[in-house]
Predict the structure.
Amino acid sequence: MAEIRFENVTKYYGRKLAINDLSFTVKEGEFFSILGPTGAGKSTILKMLAGIEPVSSGKIFFNDILVNNLSPYKRNVSMAFESYNLYSHFSVYENIAFPLRAPKWKLNLSKEEERKKVVEIASFLNIEDLLERRPQALSGGQKQRVSLARALVRKPLVYLLDEPIAHLDAKLKFSTQTLLREFMINYKSTIIYVTHDYREALALSDRMMVLRKGKFDQIDTPEKIYCSPKVDFVGRSVGVPPMNIVDGELIKKDGKTTFKVGKYFTIVLKNELVKSAEKVAKIENDKRHVRLGIRCDDIKLSEKKLSDNSFQLPVYAAVREAESSVISFELENTFLLVRAKENAECKKVQISDLLWLDFKPERLFFYEKTMEIYKS
């Protein structure tokens, strides 16, 4: 396994900037996920690591060895893609064994050694009963697991996994996530994992990167990414419903600083929140504008006033879930979403009911505006 390091890496496709002066380190033996929307540059990072795509500028290191000019086979990586790329004329066994037979790796395994490795990884992924089949006789989920087995069967410096379980159904996806974590721990492997599904990244990662337009917004543990997002985009990228993002105005009067959202509500900020809000405030038309972020689980709902900072809004809609409901309240440019437990006082809310809302002050975040918010 290897430590992987990017130093000021930039990648252009023609005139299009795909990766923008990116620097980060993946620790040896770490499960490191890259999360981001389509077009963020996730797959480009893996292709540059594998040597499939050259860097435009910057340096990539494997264990302090510069690999920019090394051909793909000399980098000793194993890669699995979202697409299966299985050989239709090979059996499942032969597809999985293919990397073990490649002359470039010079493994020179006996038939018994080869079969032991293939059966071991096939059993690990619960596809040992498919070894004699051809790919055309497999379902999409089975093909995906065969493709993953082929990537995992060999011991490289680093595994590069590009949405390798995207086509599995929910049950198989959950079990395969568990297996991937077990694989990393048991085989002491460095894994770089690309996904657009925040649930996968949170469940699997030691650390994760949230990527946007070729740059990262935050690299941190899953817990910190979810609980303490550093920018509004990270908050909106992780969680369902996503973090509430509300634009408002900072007003200082009579020794108090308040956050005002148009005609909808005003709350008084504690001193520690005032500092974080003032740090990111922007002056527009002689007013100090700032963006607030709060998760739906960090807002209390009641039919009665809860504190001096409580405010009332009419219910716009209520979506029932298994053990809770998501209640939405309409603001000027967005909706404020609140998760209410089924045993909560206001569980039988109706549209237009006037309810009291109260923000948990320790769960309020203030951000610079890095993305547009709008009603959806």
Q: What stands out?
A: The domain at 244-367 is CATH 2.40.50.100 (OB fold (Dihydrolipoamide Acetyltransferase, E2P)). The longest helix spans residues 170-187. The mean pLDDT is 92.
